[in-house]
Amino acid sequence: MNFCSHCGAPVRLAIPEGDDRPRYLCESCGTIHYQNPKIVAGTLPVSGDRVLLCKRAIAPRYGYWTLPAGFMENAETTVEAALRETREEAGAEVDNVTLYTLINLPHIDQVYMIFRGELKGEFTAGIESLEVALFREEDIPWDALAFSTIERTLKHFFADRKNDHFPLHISDIRKRQGADEPPAV
Ligand SMILES: [Zn+2]
């Protein structure tokens, strides 16, 4: 950040009085610009023994497969964000959603919240997807998944499916898992 979004004056990075970490400070209007992690909300749409994946039509990870997910917007709940992303990317509706994986990514300031639910009716690739398809466990393109959060969520799902028990999984991914892991969704 270089300039104050309130008044346009240059900002400087410094620790405000009483705080313990640097913030962007505007000395012209006095605003402290706090920056906080972003929530990525999405769904794991399930249809029988298959799950729905989207092939990305946008960078990063163009052409790789992912679950429908994206950044939460203001004035939304997490479930609303997950269902909206599912409509936008997969043209799909999902019922009976419950939170399934919550993954902290402190190195990129993101928190993933993936909701498991039942796929309802038809689906179709949205503008951010090249293709949308259903996959059985043996057909999952493990080497062509877009993000480690997606791989982790799918591994939990197919393991839990053997017991027909789907508890909430909370975990952390603390660094990039490979050189190609992008810093955004
Ligand atoms: Zn200002």
Summarize the structure.
The protein is of the alpha+beta class. It contains 2 helices and 11 strands.
Describe this structure in words.
With about 180 residues, this protein is of the alpha+beta class. It has two helices and eleven strands. Strands 4, 5, 6, 7, 8, 9, 10 and 11 form an eight-stranded mixed beta sheet that branches. It has a three-stranded antiparallel beta sheet with strand order 1-2-3, with no helix packed on it. The radius of gyration is 19 Å and the shape is elongated. The mean pLDDT is about 95. The structure holds zinc ion (ZN). Zinc ion (ZN) binds next to loops.
Question: What are the salient characteristics of this protein?
Answer:
185 residues; alpha+beta; Ubiquitin Ligase Nedd4, Chain: W; Nucleoside Triphosphate Pyrophosphohydrolase; 2 domains; eight-stranded mixed β-sheet; three-stranded antiparallel β-sheet; 2 helices; elongated; binds zinc ion
